[in-house]
Design a protein that fits this description.
Bound molecules: iron/sulfur cluster
Helix content: 40-55%
Distance between the termini: 41 Å
Strand content: 5-15%
Number of strands: 8
Largest sheet: 8 strands, parallel, barrel
Strand order of the largest sheet: 1-2-3-4-5-6-7-8
CATH architecture of the largest domain: Alpha-Beta Barrel
Length: 485
């Protein structure tokens, strides 16, 4: 299964997009993730540390690798990702690297500016994300944490004269274990691809059945987009941070936590060895499942870069057979349940039992119907507001506030969103959920269920599921012709 193509990839400058080429040739790329630092950390200090990792990677010629520069992942108040990437990534490596563009705390025009800035610095592989809303200031204080939905950035780019210059990507978070959290994630993936996403990166996770689920879903739906799995190389500190919710949408199950605690008991070196082995198994599994690469978070010192190379290459040649890999992986995790919640919803029943998605059975669990209250609310709103997307925003203002909980919008989207106001989502996203919700479906920023659970239940009840994949709901600023990319 290890392809010789993956060893023919280096950083010599070429006119072509090396990441795109690697995908086309069926290579397997390793991206090392470096988050853009928060503003409270001095730019030069962080850039110097990152540059050392980059230099170490640059020396690994012949290894299919690049960088993934995260945007606003550590803090909403971060240095600009494009300027940070410009300072640390050598020009010859930009075509093999990806740059994230986050809508966290941004306005529509700002993500457009970030795309322009990234292109000017020679970064063409851009992953659009809505962004985490987690903030010590907003959690559970009913404050808004507005974000530009990745769908808007992708659409704005698709309609712009920059479209041909960018190889756009998007993110999928399959690590959801309630039906009403998982289904909207997949509806949104289809929407992202419809809006121009040409490759996908997953959220970080350790549940390999979920990573297989993504590949099966894409294959079954004939969505042949290259996919990169984001993996985390855990340290004891990272374990604590994941468990305390520092990485919205990233979950550690109870069983997996016990394994990690056990590994920590024998000292740092044993713990580190177990993490490298887990990373190897995950990388090899991803390759066998049809992933085009992995993105590793947690490489903090330059010395780890050559270890990454040797471990990944070793793993890719160790496993050529899916069943052998599966047995090794299951033994390594001691048959632990990787689902972090009592619900354990997977889209397909026979993940891991079959290698071929075509022979899989869609999970026949019935899709939950809306509650009586939800049905009544929907009927009432429909009777009152069915034309409000075409009316002046002030029309029915008071009634919308009382019966739909609406905030003040310049453009009413109720008839387009199953009458569930997108402004009830603290991020204000109207085209599908973010990936940051908790394992039990609770909103990332509130102790209430994600608004997309109700909207999806109503859409399924009304047989309007297509609208969740196909209908583009404009950003309110678009109605007033905000500048696009
Ligand atoms: S309501 Fe849903 S989409 Fe909105 S912030 Fe919460 S989890 Fe994300």
């Amino acid at each position: 299964m290890t392809s010789s193509k993956q060893n023919t990839f280096d950083f010599a400058p070429r006119g072509e997009n090396q990441l795109h080429e690697s995908f086309k040739q069926g290579g397997f790329t390793t991206l090392v993730e470096i988050p853009t630092p928060p503003r409270q950390v001095e730019f030069d200090t962080s850039a110097k540390l990152a540059a050392e990792i980059v230099q170490a990677l640059e020396q690994e010629r012949g290894f299919a690798a690049g960088l993934a520069i995260g945007d606003k992942t550590l803090s909403i108040d971060s240095h600009g990702a494009a300027s940070f990437a410009d300072a640390v990534v050598p020009k010859s490596m930009r075509n093999s690297s990806v740059l994230y563009i986050s809508g966290r705390g941004a306005e529509l025009g700002e993500t457009a500016d970030s795309v322009t800035e990234s292109l000017a610095s020679g970064f063409r592989n851009l992953i659009m994300v809505t962004g985490d809303g987690y903030s010590e200031h907003s959690r559970n204080r009913n404050e808004k944490s507005p974000c530009v939905d990745s769908i808007h950035t992708l659409t704005s780019l698709k309609c712009s004269d920059k479209a041909s210059e960018v190889f756009p990507g998007a993110v999928v978070n399959p690590f959801k274990y309630n039906e009403m959290d998982l289904l909207p994630q997949y509806f949104k993936v289809v929407r992202k691809i419809n809006c121009g996403a040409s490759f996908l990166a997953t959220q970080a996770g350790w549940d390999m059945m979920k990573l297989q689920e993504v590949r099966w879903f894409l294959n079954i739906r004939d969505l042949h987009v290259p996919t990169i799995a984001r993996l985390m190389l855990l340290t004891p500190d990272l374990v604590k941070r994941v468990l305390s919710g520092d990485f919205p949408g990233v979950h550690i199950s109870r069983d997996f936590k016990l394994i990690l605690e056990n590994e920590m008991r024998y000292g740092y070196h044993q713990f580190a060895a177990a993490q490298w082995r887990r990373l190897q198994l995950q990388a090899a599994g991803c390759r066998l499942m049809g992933y085009s690469g992995i993105q590793i978070y947690g490489i903090e010192v330059p010395e780890h870069v050559s270890t990454v190379r040797s471990k990944i290459e070793e793993a890719l040649s160790e496993f050529n057979d899916f069943n052998e890999w599966k047995d090794a992986y299951i033994a390594h995790i001691s048959r632990a349940d990787m689902a972090p919640f009592s619900h354990r919803y997977y889209l397909y029943k026979n993940l891991f039992q079959e290698r071929d998605a075509a022979r899989s059975i869609v999970n026949p669990e019935t899709i939950a119907a809306p509650s009586l209250l939800e049905k009544l609310r929907h009927g009432l709103r429909k009777a009152m507001f069915s034309k409000d997307d075409q009316l002046a925003p002030d029309e029915h203002r008071l009634f919308k506030k009382i019966f739909a909980g609406c905030a003040r919008c310049d453009y009413c989207r109720l008839p387009l969103t199953q009458y569930v106001c997108p402004e009830n989502c603290p991020k204000g996203v109207a085209n599908g959920p973010c990936g940051g919700g908790a394992a039990d479906g609770t909103c990332e920023l509130r102790d209430t269920p994600c608004v997309y659970a109700e909207r999806t239940r109503i859409a399924v009840w009304l047989n309007e599921m297509d609208s969740l994949e196909e209908r583009y709901v404009k950003h309110p600023a678009e109605a007033s012709k905000v500048k696009s990319v």
